[in-house]
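Backbone-to-sequence.
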């Protein structure tokens, strides 16, 4: 293959009729082509996908465009540009635009209420975002460390609008898409045919188009071809007319505030402005600079990887479950580099570990104790003379991992154990990994991990993955109150009727463990698993976030509040409201109409109605969702071709959601 001035490569994973959460079953590839000689592209190549957090690269580029025009200073206080931005933490005044773009602002994480909507581009979240932030505090001093944060880029979207005087969608279109001639990149606020989006499914049922209405952090769509064409502005072959070389270089600088990790460590995370990594492994092993950004929504997953000096970009997308998009992109690029003669081989092997055992210093043994791994579970660290034992608490398999202390002052496993991004792992399904582990800063477990999946490129990660948890003494009475909520189910009530959160299942659970007194875990459960976070108990009805582990583990923290009114308990997770499921009525109590007073009305399907077929007339301002006995959403009126009704599932549930006054007519 001859060298080219500008190359683009895209891989499209088509998922037709695949169940939610499944793996892709078909793939189509396009070889690199020279833009100047590009021929007509098959229609499938123009299919657009939700690119999720890859949108952040557009947001950062938009900010840099304003810097070029002298309208924005990245290091001025954010309040200079958004004077009505306030928080319940005086440190908010120290936040700058740069901190929003490199994840160091200290915001709690993901304020996404009424943002994940199906067939609906309502701007509620955008319009109320500053209001939602007003009651929040910061998790660390602004600029001190970088913890991945969607809210920072959502706030940057508002910043761009305030400074430019036009909507974010207009700014991106005028300054980037029109100049590059890109017609298959849109936002949720763009006017376009939603049938050009890759179809998404629940079971075998196609859903209405997904709209993630936090555009700056994740609300854009793109075809993989046009996404690669957009990426040409970051290449050395670009003329700087769309985005200056100085701006491109600024975005590509490592601005990741991550103490305790070597600057030259091999990792997936080395934040630039908008980029997840500006020094991507394994390309750094060959002296090649690579930029990468991954993104996921409820229904789509995408990766964009750019090699500026080689004028090469690869974009990979899928609908359904996350399917190793970054590794697929790496695999494509490695083959191209080998064919171009830029690297000799693409074979990567796991590093050999120093397994020569040594005696653990007493100063290191002081790190013994309880650690929060940020995935809703804790790990107890214990030491013998030469061994570290890590035992997870609150997970299905509480198997202890064993790491020996070596002569280099590191902990390594000799039996196949390793640590992924916040999870204790071992060889499974052909996946293999190795980890070197150290303790740092009196509170963190820091790892360097390499992992190889079958048939895909090897990945690396270097970051703190857990923080030491200090004892939190609470009274027996307070602890008993939280323990009484164990195993309860709480059901979502305050999202819009078009919200994807109900598709996810809309159920939350609280858990406590006598081995972690003073702490509580809360999980948002869905068909693909649970997103669980921990909080420190403050009183009988409040638990506060405390996680501030740099990079990824400390992201998206939760403030928990429980309120009781009329004997009904409501759990608030940040701004989401969930009611105690034990208080809801049975479907046998439903007449020929369900009328919404406010929010959502849930029902348990009882024996007398299970198996009945109901015809449901849905109002314009309402939707219904049905769930099986495991709370998997099996049907909803948000399907693209909505059904007239539902056969009530045995031991399942149904929820009616709508604006106040919305009425559902039911024929049984």
């Amino acid at each position: 293959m001859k060298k080219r001035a500008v190359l683009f490569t895209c891989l499209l994973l088509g998922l037709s009729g695949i169940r939610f959460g499944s793996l892709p079953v078909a793939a189509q590839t396009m070889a690199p082509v020279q833009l100047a000689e590009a021929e007509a592209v098959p229609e499938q190549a123009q299919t657009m996908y939700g690119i999720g957090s890859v949108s952040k690269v557009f947001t950062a580029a938009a900010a840099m465009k304003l810097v070029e025009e002298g309208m924005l200073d990245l290091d001025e206080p954010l309040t200079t540009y958004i004077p009505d931005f306030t928080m319940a933490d005086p440190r908010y005044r120290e936040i700058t635009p740069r901190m929003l773009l490199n994840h160091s602002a200290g915001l709690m994480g993901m304020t996404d209420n009424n943002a994940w909507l199906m067939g609906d581009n309502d701007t509620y979240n955008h319009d109320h975002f500053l209001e939602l932030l007003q009651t929040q505090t910061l998790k660390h001093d602004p600029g001190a460390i970088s913890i991945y944060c969607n809210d920072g880029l959502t706030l940057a979207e508002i910043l761009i609008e305030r400074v430019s005087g036009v909507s974010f969608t207009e700014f991106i279109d005028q300054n980037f898409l029109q100049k590059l001639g890109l017609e298959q990149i849109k936002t949720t606020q763009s006017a376009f045919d939603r049938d050009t989006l890759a179809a998404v499914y629940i079971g075998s049922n196609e859903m209405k188009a997904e709209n993630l209405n936090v555009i700056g952090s994740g609300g854009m769509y793109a075809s993989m071809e046009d996404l690669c064409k957009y990426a040409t502005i970051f290449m050395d072959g670009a003329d700087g007319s769309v985005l200056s070389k100085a701006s491109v270089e600024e975005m590509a600088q490592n601005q990741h505030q991550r103490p305790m990790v070597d600057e030259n460590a091999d990792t997936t995370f080395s934040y630039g402005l908008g980029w997840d990594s500006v020094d991507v492994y394994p390309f750094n092993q060959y002296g090649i600079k690579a930029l990468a950004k991954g993104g996921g929504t409820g229904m789509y997953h995408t990766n964009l990887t750019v090699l500026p000096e080689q004028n090469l970009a690869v974009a990979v997308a899928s609908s359904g479950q996350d399917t190793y998009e970054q590794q697929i992109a790496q695999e494509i690029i490695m083959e191209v580099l080998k064919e171009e003669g830029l690297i000799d081989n693409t074979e990567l092997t796991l590093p050999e570990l120093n397994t020569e055992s040594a005696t653990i210093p007493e100063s290191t043994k002081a790190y013994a104790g309880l650690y929060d791994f940020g995935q809703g579970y804790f790990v107890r660290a214990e030491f013998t003379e030469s061994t570290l034992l890590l035992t997870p608490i609150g997970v299905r398999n509480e198997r202890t991992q064993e790491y020996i202390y070596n002569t280099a002052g590191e902990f390594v496993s000799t039996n196949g154990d390793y640590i992924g991004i916040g999870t204790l792992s071992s060889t499974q399904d052909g996946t293999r990994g190795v980890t070197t582990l150290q303790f740092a800063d009196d509170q963190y477990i820091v790892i360097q991990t390499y992992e190889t999946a079958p048939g895909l490129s090897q990945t690396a990660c270097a970051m703190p993955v857990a923080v030491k948890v200090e004892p939190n003494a609470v009274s027996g009475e307070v602890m008993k109150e939280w323990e009484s909520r164990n195993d309860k189910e709480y059901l979502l009530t305050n999202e819009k009727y078009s919200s994807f959160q109900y598709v996810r299942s809309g159920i939350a659970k609280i858990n406590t463990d006598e081995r972690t007194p003073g702490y509580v875990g809360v999980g948002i459960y869905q068909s693909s698993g649970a997103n669980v976070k921990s909080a420190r108990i403050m009183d009988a009805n409040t638990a506060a976030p405390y996680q501030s582990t740099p990079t990824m583990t400390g992201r998206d923290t939760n403030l928990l509040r429980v309120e009781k009114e009329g004997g009904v308990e409501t759990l608030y997770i940040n701004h989401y409201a969930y009611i105690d499921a034990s208080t809801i009525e049975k479907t046998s109590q439903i007449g020929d109409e369900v009328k919404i007073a406010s929010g959502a009305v849930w029902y348990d399907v009882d024996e007398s109605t299970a198996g009945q077929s109901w015809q449901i007339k849905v109002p314009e301002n309402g939707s219904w969702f049905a769930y099986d006995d495991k709370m998997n959403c099996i049907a909803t009126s948000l399907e693209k071709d909505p059904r007239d009704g539902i056969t009530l599932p045995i031991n399942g549930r149904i929820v009616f959601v709508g604006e106040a006054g919305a009425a559902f007519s039911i024929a049984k």
